[in-house]
């Protein structure tokens, strides 16, 4: 008895076409993503190198006289190799550099460069040696714990900057500047670079999150409205006591003299 073989119909499984299309989309999408990623990375590298090149031109034209070719330093200015982008962004971004004249410390003055030029200078110097980078918006915009920031500020900063960030005098003509208008970026950069007479607060001394809390507290102070009379620049009890001693006691003496003169 002959058994007939089953015929092949030539039909594919209904899901085979769907599977082939899905595989095609996966390979096509993966290839496009890889190509886009490599292209974006190449553009980033190119832009970074272009930024560094432009920063080098600005440095040679404006800074090399004091800091030397290649920022290795001269008798007129220190080496900048290894100071990082944050130090340059702080000094140039606050107008302290280029210095207007020699003195106990660099004075704050109108900024000489645009934001773009400042970043170009910063990343050129950063390319010469590793150092602190410009902080991210997450750390420099505040949004942390103001109460913790106030405690940290009182412990680490208030002895020079005053508890309200009003600043104060130091020795030999030096001073701690007021922080009443300083941006969060520059406050963070000052903490990690230690400009002028300020100590460096690295991440082992004060963590990045604690630095953000300090900035949050200072922003609260900057934005808060004084209540209850004339604040006298928030210089603290010494200034307020001196004011009362001079004007209050002077007024009492004047009234006493007036009463005595009238009684005679």
From TrEMBL:
Signal peptide annotation: none
EC primary class: translocase
Binding-site residues, heme c 2: 157, 160-161
Main location: membrane
Domain of life: Bacteria
GO cellular component assignments: plasma membrane
UniProt keyword terms in alphabetical order: Cell membrane, Electron transport, Heme, Iron, Membrane, Metal-binding, Repeat, Respiratory chain, Translocase, Transmembrane, Transmembrane helix, Transport
A UniProt-annotated Pfam family: Cytochrome_CBB3
Every Cytochrome c domain range: 50-129, 144-222
Catalytic activity: a quinol + 2 Fe(III)-[cytochrome c](out) = a quinone + 2 Fe(II)-[cytochrome c](out) + 2 H(+)(out)
Transmembrane segments: 242-261
Record carries keyword ATP-binding: no
Binding site for heme c 1: 63, 66-67
Topology of this chain in the membrane: Multi-pass membrane protein
EC nos: 7.1.1.8
GO MF terms, alphabetically ordered: heme binding; iron ion binding; quinol-cytochrome-c reductase activity
Quaternary structure note: The cytochrome bc1 complex is composed of a cytochrome b (QcrB), the Rieske iron-sulfur protein (QcrA) and a diheme cytochrome c (QcrC) subunit.
Listed name of the protein: Cytochrome bc1 complex cytochrome c subunit
């Amino acid at each position: 008895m002959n058994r007939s073989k089953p015929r092949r119909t030539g039909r594919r499984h209904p899901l085979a076409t769907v599977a082939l299309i899905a595989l095609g989309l996966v390979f096509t999408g993966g290839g496009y993503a890889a190509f886009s990623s490599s292209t974006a990375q190449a553009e980033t590298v190119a832009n970074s190198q272009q930024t560094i090149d432009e920063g080098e031109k600005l440095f040679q034209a404006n800074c090399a006289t004091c800091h030397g070719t290649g920022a290795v330093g001269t008798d007129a200015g220190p080496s900048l190799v290894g100071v990082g982008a944050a130090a340059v962004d702080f000094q140039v971004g606050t107008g302290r550099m280029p210095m207007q004249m020699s003195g106990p410390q660099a004075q704050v003055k109108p900024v000489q460069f645009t934001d773009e030029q400042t970043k170009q200078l910063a990343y050129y110097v950063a390319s010469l040696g590793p150092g602190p980078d410009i902080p991210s918006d997450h750390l420099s915009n505040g949004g942390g714990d103001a109460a913790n920031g106030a405690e940290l500020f009182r412990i680490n900063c208030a002895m020079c900057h005053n508890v309200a960030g009003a600043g104060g005098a130091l020795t030999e003509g030096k001073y701690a500047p007021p922080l009443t208008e300083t941006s969060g970026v520059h406050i963070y950069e000052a903490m990690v670079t230690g400009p002028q007479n300020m100590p460096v607060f690295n991440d082992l001394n004060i963590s990045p999150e604690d630095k953000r809390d300090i900035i949050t507290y200072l922003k609260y102070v900057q934005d808060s409205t004084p209540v209850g009379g004339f604040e006298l620049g928030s210089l603290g009890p010494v200034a307020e006591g001196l004011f009362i001693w001079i004007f209050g006691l002077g007024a009492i003496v004047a009234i006493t003299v007036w009463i005595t003169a009238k009684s005679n």
